[in-house]
Structures are given as C-alpha cells and as structure tokens.
Write a structure and sequence with these properties.
Layout: E1 2-8, H1 14-27, E2 32-37, H2 43-50, E3 52-56, H3 66-79, E4 86-90, E5 94-96, E6 112-114, E7 129-133, H4 136-150, H5 155-163, H6 175-185, H7 187-194, E8 200-202, H8 213-230, E9 236-238
Parallel strand pairs: 1-2, 1-4, 2-3, 6-8
Antiparallel strand pairs: 4-7, 5-9, 6-7
Helix pairs in contact: 3-4, 5-6
Protein name: Nucleotide-diphospho-sugar transferase domain-containing protein
Organism: marine sediment metagenome
Length: about 240
C-alpha cells in the first residue's frame, strides 16, 4: 500500500494546503493521504474533497515541538503499516508536478530515499519530502530518529545541530531535516555498525526541487523552477 504522510497545524494558509492536495490527487489517485492536525473548521470539507484522513491531536501537543511531534506520529503510523508499504513524508507547501510514488521505482530499491539539492548549500538535504519503505530497518531508523530528536546523544548529530545553531529551536524546528542530513553523511556507519543493511539512497532534486531563495532571490527561484520543469527534470516544487 502507498501512503502520503503530512502535518498541518496552526491555521496555516488553507489555499496552500488545497493547492498541495489538489496537485497531489491529480497525479496520485489511490495512495492513502494521512495528515496530523490540531484541527480547523474546513477539515471535513478538505477530507471529503481530496479523500484525505485527518488525525486531530490536542493543540498543546504541537506547542514548541511541531517538528518532533511529526516524526513521533510518523513512527507510530508506521506500526500500523505492512512490511513493503511505501510512505512519502511530505510538507504541505508542495506543488506536485508528478506522482511522488514513482520515486520508489526510480532506479535501485532503497529503505530510505532522500533528496539532495542541485547546488551547494549549508546543508545538502531539504527534508520537505523523503521516502520510506516499511521494514525492520526503517522502523529501527525511525526509533533512533525519535530518540535522538528527543534527547541527542549521537555525536555527529549533536555537532551538526551546534554548527548551525539549530539547538536554539529546541524540538520545534529543524530536528527532522538535521537528522536526515547527518544520516546521509554517516550512512556507511549506520549501515555497517548501527542498522545492518540499511540502504539510504539519494534521489537527487527530481523529487524535491527547492531553489534557495535566500541565495538567488524570489524571481531567480521561480525562473529555476520553470526551467527545470520545462526540461522534465523535476516532479515537485515548493508553493511558497
């Protein structure tokens, strides 16, 4: 079974959410869309229109721990999946230009699929979207992910957080992206010494094109998106 796992909270831009889900359903007809949320008045309408399942959680669970809550709930969600199921973990500020499930048949198989940027940046991976094949290895990976995001003890992860001063965000932001960046850097050690046989594969920017607006500006970013889409090199791009 194919799954799309998302989080929507704090009465974020509803037009953005609808644009995201509309573009997703146009290209991905059958996957189960599952969204954790703190609730909003249009929830039933959105759920029915796009065949999305919402899990409403108490608002206080999101306070100062939005990023951590997302991966906690992802780990829990995986417990109800069957081995071999495929999960796309995505932000809601995405415009889908193709079916994200196609990432699982794009080249060799993998346990975890990440997407590196096509340009040099402070951290190579944008975690707006990543991919999981459900099995014992990815369940252990997510257990370790939640453990370290809750209370870091893994030296490479602690060093990365400190390097970019991301500790100031606590559990609210960047813990997911930081961990994926370190997992990619330490993939050989993870495979050899921590989670035997774990395959983390780089899918490149095709499934997650996110030009750096802080580097090339808003207009430059828009031009790059149009250029890459015209060349059929991307299947996803940020809305905002």
């Amino acid at each position: 079974m194919n799954h799309i796992f998302m989080a929507y909270y704090g009465n974020a831009d509803l037009n953005m959410l609808e644009t995201c889900l509309n573009s997703l359903r146009m290209r991905c007809k059958s996957a189960k869309i599952f969204i954790i949320t703190d609730g909003f008045k249009e929830q039933s309408y959105i759920a029915n229109k796009y065949r999305a399942e919402f899990l409403k959680l108490p608002r206080e669970r999101f306070k100062d721990r939005r990023a951590l809550l997302k991966i906690e709930e992802l780990q829990y969600y995986m417990q109800g999946c069957s081995f071999g199921d495929q999960i796309v973990v995505a932000d809601v500020d995405i415009l889908f230009l193709g079916n994200p499930i196609s990432a699982f048949s794009y080249g060799p198989s993998f346990d975890i699929g990440i997407t590196t940027r096509d340009y040099k940046y402070y951290y190579p991976i944008n975690a707006g979207i990543f991919f999981l094949t459900v099995n014992k290895k990815t369940k252990e990976f997510m257990r370790f992910h939640v453990e370290q995001s809750t209370k870091a003890t893994w030296p490479p992860y602690m060093k990365f957080r400190k390097k970019f001063n991301h500790e100031r965000y606590g559990h609210d932001w960047t813990v997911g992206q930081d961990f994926l960046n370190v997992a990619w850097q330490q993939r050989k050690i993870l495979n050899d010494k921590m989670i035997a046989g774990l395959t983390i594969r780089d899918l490149g920017c095709r499934f997650n094109y996110c030009p750096a607006r802080d580097v090339i500006g808003e207009a430059g970013a828009q031009d790059k998106i149009l250029e890459m889409y015209a060349a059929n090199k991307i299947t996803r791009s940020p809305i905002a």
